[in-house]
Specification:
194 residues; mainly alpha; disordered C terminus
């Protein structure tokens, strides 16, 4: 009984630390005016803490609830106009599908031939999207879970952090509103050649 209570307290403490770091990172990047600052700041600070050895934890029930909220929010943007747009651009969608298959094959081949990964681990690491599902499949197939998780996590970080900053730097998206420290954010961004 006492061991269960201590485990429960430990889980709550880790969750609180994870959420506190996520809020702190998100708030810092948001105040700097970095594109998608709340998302990228939270992700980067929690990832840095995890790499430093801190046990970052989100319990499975909370994870499931968050996945449901994400699914609902993504489903809410599918409107009749979206579906009509898909019918208008079938060639673009076909090219996108072919490009997706080619990128997956190229990334898999790169991991197999240059880094000597086994084929299953390379296929899972190169798979686009669905980080949690890919890691779950890795555990069932005997793939190198750690390697797959690292590659998948880096892909998510690059897309979440790099894409918004890159679009703004290329002028393909509106710059974020000026906030406290906004000028510093662009100096930081330019020094890293965002």
């Amino acid at each position: 009984m006492l061991a269960a209570l201590q485990t429960h307290r430990s889980t709550i403490g880790r969750l609180a630390e994870t959420l506190l770091l996520a809020v702190a990172g998100g708030a810092a990047f948001g105040m700097l005016g970095i594109p998608a600052g709340w998302l990228s700041g939270a992700m980067l600070l929690v990832a840095m803490a995890a790499l430093a050895g801190r046990p970052m934890t989100i319990p499975a029930p909370l994870t499931r609830a968050i996945f449901v909220l994400i699914g609902v929010s993504l489903g809410a943007v599918v409107t009749p106009e979206t579906l009509q747009g898909m019918a208008v651009w079938p060639l673009s969608l076909a090219v996108l599908l072919v490009a997706l298959v080619c990128m997956h094959a190229a990334a898999t081949a790169y991991l197999v031939y240059f880094h000597r990964w086994d084929t299953v681990s390379a296929l899972l690491a190169a798979a686009p999207g669905a980080l949690s599902q890919v890691v779950a499949v890795s555990t069932e197939t005997g793939a190198d879970i750690r390697a797959v998780a690292i590659v998948q996590t880096m892909r998510v970080v690059i897309v979440s952090v790099g894409l918004p900053v890159g679009l703004v730097a290329l002028g393909l998206s509106a710059a974020p509103a000026r906030t406290i420290g906004g000028s510093f954010a662009w100096i930081f961004c330019l020094s890293w050649r965002c």
